Input
Amino acid sequence: MKPVCLVIGAGAGIGGTVGARFAAEGYHAVLCRRQNREGLDTLVARITENGGTASGFLLNAVEPDALEERIAATERDIGPIEVVIYNLGAQIGNRDLTETTEKQFERCWRMATFGLFRTARAVLPVMAERATGSMIVTSATAAMRGNPGQHAHAAAMAGRRMLCQTLGAEYASRGVHVCHVLIDGPVDAPDTVGLLLGKERFQALREARGLGKDGLLLPEQIAETYLHLHRQHRSAWSNEIDLRPWTDLPWWNSRNESRGY
Amino acid sequence: MKPVCLVIGAGAGIGGTVGARFAAEGYHAVLCRRQNREGLDTLVARITENGGTASGFLLNAVEPDALEERIAATERDIGPIEVVIYNLGAQIGNRDLTETTEKQFERCWRMATFGLFRTARAVLPVMAERATGSMIVTSATAAMRGNPGQHAHAAAMAGRRMLCQTLGAEYASRGVHVCHVLIDGPVDAPDTVGLLLGKERFQALREARGLGKDGLLLPEQIAETYLHLHRQHRSAWSNEIDLRPWTDLPWWNSRNESRGY
Amino acid sequence: MKPVCLVIGAGAGIGGTVGARFAAEGYHAVLCRRQNREGLDTLVARITENGGTASGFLLNAVEPDALEERIAATERDIGPIEVVIYNLGAQIGNRDLTETTEKQFERCWRMATFGLFRTARAVLPVMAERATGSMIVTSATAAMRGNPGQHAHAAAMAGRRMLCQTLGAEYASRGVHVCHVLIDGPVDAPDTVGLLLGKERFQALREARGLGKDGLLLPEQIAETYLHLHRQHRSAWSNEIDLRPWTDLPWWNSRNESRGY
Amino acid sequence: MKPVCLVIGAGAGIGGTVGARFAAEGYHAVLCRRQNREGLDTLVARITENGGTASGFLLNAVEPDALEERIAATERDIGPIEVVIYNLGAQIGNRDLTETTEKQFERCWRMATFGLFRTARAVLPVMAERATGSMIVTSATAAMRGNPGQHAHAAAMAGRRMLCQTLGAEYASRGVHVCHVLIDGPVDAPDTVGLLLGKERFQALREARGLGKDGLLLPEQIAETYLHLHRQHRSAWSNEIDLRPWTDLPWWNSRNESRGY
Output
């Protein structure tokens, strides 16, 4: 029975690519996403064609028990979850305060923060019993600082980051590795950044950074670091790391002249 | 008509004391808390005895519309809100992950993060129209890092901090001052820290730090800094400050020997 | 005998203005700067005209013993130093790595970091014996993050910030208050920002922000917060605060569109 | 001609081990340390025995031109430097302010900050011409916060961290990867932590964490992450990561009860 790599939020960007990378290393990839059965089947098929094994499930993470039941069913029917990739985004674009509804604010939290809490509650104790396992959490720059218009997203992602810290503080000594990965730049993924920016602006961004090359974060390169994080020996674990493309400045750098210094 | 200092979370510690301090400077204090009508009346009476004016309201911040209606009624019936003190705590003590319920996790977020979002939505646009006003947010060390057992509290407080940043980023240029105040140490307040620790441990802590003196954070001294923050000229605003007693090390310092360096 | 407010780096901007503010509160201001005897005399004269007392000294902070001797002489001849304002800047403008000389790099460190260390060694133990006193340290955004071209300045200012933390950690419990003040924006000061930008760009910046008004950090408003910090009761001390004008976004916010989120 | 991995600070802990790891991957390891010719020869011999190639040099990093000449000689005589490991420590143990001498304070800065600046000036422009290369910088928890007694070390390490940021900001877009690695815990290395704690306390620490196993940071595991960082594709670079053993809490967590929350 293969160990399982469970991906919560498996689109055509980071999530699906990380799942495929682990599948290539002998894990059974369990790919979960909210919608697009066809896209999901394509991801599973591609893994199978490459000699790996995978299963795909539609899963609405904000629904009660959905995460918990998927985790229980995976452990029962497929294999021991050795690594969880929590990869749900909660970006809704920039909105002024008065244009951010209570419903949006709450939904971002349910996706980014509460869903992680529920996933952790369902899977970390199981990993702790086996004294091994990793939870790798994709996070966004909004977890580090609150930009204008990011009310819902930043509050939710900051909660996600802090939760990674409390989870790590409780589970590290029990052999479970929790890592918060700050994706600090645009990912070359039509499903997320592409949708957010719209087709034209996304294409313009890609071209500005060098089309089809490496000016944006390439999901398959992100996957290499996720794999490395999971493989880190417990004597030398990373809990917080960042990733960004060489063409970009980190979030902490300013760009306009009056703040150059 | 006096300008109003609205306090959300006006207990016998920071909230009520800050309200009284502003009342002494000519503000009408509007004190809101969830329960204890008697305690609330005492706070109002004390302000009145000292020549100030105040009103007290019981208010359940997690109830729909409660915050919004109180803000609207204050503007309509009492006076223009010049400063809001958002002072709701969400500390539930240390609990292991499996002992932290979904309900607790959500409730902390409703108090610490969502309530601030709702308050901001109701009051900041009104302040922005007048191009003046302050929102001073009491925050906890858990907003900066996640300690073991603090899953619900840390995730909620980190959301609070990040929300202060997005709010400030949108409203500063419209003349409204948002400040996140990190209370980084135990407050000499029987209503909060006292309840959390229990009577005996709280008394032991007070004695260890110098009973009745200044080893814990004194609410009346915290109030001086809140008043200063509100009075800061808009050419030199603080957005993040910390407060702690001289007897304590900041959160970033370690205490045990193997981490001394 | 009046208590002394000693200012290291007393130009026409923050330093001189803070000295004057303390002088107005009954402190004897001891103003030290490297050059411009005439400017120094003007600052002293203005304080005297306003009914205060002050002394001015030319002092080269990178010279061996200069700081130490000035501190000893002040304690011996003028009065007990109750507050030190360490206000030496070390900005040399943006320079590529290969254009930053070893000499410049070392000089920035001598001004920003080593000078503070030497000042602290000379004055904090004296304050600790009296169990009272404040050291307020003006700092720059470069202490928080390293922007392109800021090699010398950022390394030096980061050292300054960390030194404030180690000093506070050792001296707080002995009654001495150390505070790191992040000046996160352009100060309306022809001596520093004006020189750095050049007359024309400085004037353009002032006009863009609202000439003669409050679009830049006004030194007299900064001084109000310095005074408040010194007066904070030891039960509620701030160790790190920031100051910026309402027209500006904090350093942590991005400005260009592709990083809006 | 093999590409070179240049290690500044190649003792029996992180430095020598990382050098050996790169040698096993086909790099020529150039190992530099201040003293102990014999220990250096042992490191080189061990690499050779394992089929790799290496050279060892005694080098005093605080001496003028020593770093610059070694870098030039390496490029001229050995091969192109593809990765530099800057691994000089500057820990002098905890000392009160009055017991920290100017000489110690300056020496720490020369090792931790100035040496990195000089190394960067000598090697990054060369790498930039080739549009490839990595500088991986070992750093300490003291770079993040200033603990009591760490005046010299913390100021120096904070400068090191900020310098990594300015270097990355200038050289990333030219194809050179700079990464600041926070070693946040005790390393299982008799040469550094062992010397600092003394033989008995070091052994006690090892036993408390599980002797000979993995309770301390194992240099060979740290080396795996250094290798991964160098191999990261430029579309997804890390600039700041941390490493700590599973038995330890991160620096941001408190340990004593009164700060549990």
About this structure: The beta strands of chain C are 4-8, 28-33, 53-58, 81-86, 134-140, 177-183, 240-243. The interface with chain A takes residues 91, 93-94, 140-142, 144-150, 153, 186, 196, 205, 248-256, 258-261 of chain C (CB under 8 Å). The mean pLDDT of chain C is 94. The first strand of chain C starts at residue 4 and ends at 8.
